[in-house]
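Hello forum,

I keep getting stuck at the same step: I have a sequence, I want structure tokens, and every attempt I make locally crashes halfway through. Rather than fight my setup again tonight, could one of you with a working pipeline run this one for me? It's a single chain of 142 residues.
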Amino acid sequence: MGRELGLTGPRLTVLEHAALMHDIGQLSLVDPVAGGATALLPAAEQRRIALLGGAVVRRTGAGPAVAAVVERQADPYREQPLAARIVRTVNAYDDLCGEGVGGPLGALEQLRLGTGHDHQPQVVEALGRVLARGGLTPAGAG
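Reply #2:
Ran it on my machine without issues. Output:
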């Protein structure tokens, strides 16, 4: 996804590390999120988990840029850096695929319905191109 949207070098590395750690804030929760599907939670809870995740990432030594992406993945997309927009959209896609919304195509359609509010249209369309090439498989799909 990062390459599809023009990220290279250090910016691509930050995206990769943030993508690997994007759900780490869930480790701070007393009650786990069912199926780990944070994209289906209310916005305030998503934000709280993202901030918890950023605090954990800051302790790992992964760097402040990675922590910022993890922290900001639940912000309104117009306020996010591109890497956080990508993490948010791909995470939502993965969560939606696990919710029985019609498989990958249904999940992509749900994201398209959320463009302009929850997801940047260009990021959703880039996801569609990557999926069309077979470049991304939902975690729950095997």
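The radius of gyration is 14 Å. If your local run keeps crashing, start a new thread with the error log.
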